[in-house]
Design brief:
mainly beta; six-stranded antiparallel β-sheet; three-stranded antiparallel β-sheet; dUTPase-like_sf; dCTP deaminase activity; dUTPase_trimeric; dCTP_deaminase
């Protein structure tokens, strides 16, 4: 089941959901708006390799904003650090950002229970669009779980700022040895 906005606020106050910084004005009927941080990463190469770390360039989003191009994947991040050991956060785009052709996350909207940190956003623009630091760019919902809980201990734990893919770590490199 999804938590309502008032229940999200109650759980933040009790400490079972952590949102920092928390702003009551960002609570919605069944979600919490998150804001865009001021850093983006873009991959240096056009063709990415899933078996190795792909180099990135870091961009700062100035107060006057930055224009996103349709042919580029931008890795952004939330201003807020979010997590819970009791509820599962799920990222959602806001309808207002979707209506200007901005995908806030291409995939991976489910955040594992026990994961804490800033969310990395996978931004893709359908047409050129200007974004700004601190803008409300998406929302997070919180879901209850059934069954035993195993807390996330993965490679993206404690993320601060945008994190490039570490899919290469998932390969068993021994399978490719002679």
């Amino acid at each position: 089941m999804i938590l309502t906005g008032p229940k999200i606020q109650q759980e933040v106050l009790s400490g079972t959901i952590r949102i920092s910084p928390f702003c009551e004005e960002q609570v919605n009927p069944n979600s919490y708006d998150f804001r865009l941080g001021d850093t983006l990463k873009v991959y240096k190469k056009h063709v990415l390799d899933t078996k190795k770390l792909n180099e990135t360039t870091t961009l700062h989003i100035p107060p006057e904003g930055i224009e996103l191009r349709p042919d580029t994947l931008y890795l952004g991040h939330t201003m807020e650090s979010v997590g819970s050991d009791k509820f599962v956060p799920v990222l959602r785009g806001k309808s207002s950002t979707g209506r200007i052709g901005l995908f806030v996350h291409i995939t991976a909207d489910l955040i594992d229970i026990g994961s804490y940190g800033q969310f990395t956003l996978m931004l893709h623009a359908v047409q050129p669009v200007r974004i700004y630091p601190r803008m409300r760019i998406g929302q997070v919902t919180f879901w209850t779980v059934l069954g035993d809980i195993t807390l996330y201990q993965g490679k993206y734990q404690g993320s601060n700022g945008p994190r490039e893919s570490e899919v290469y770590r998932d390969f068993d490199h021994r399978e490719h040895l002679p």
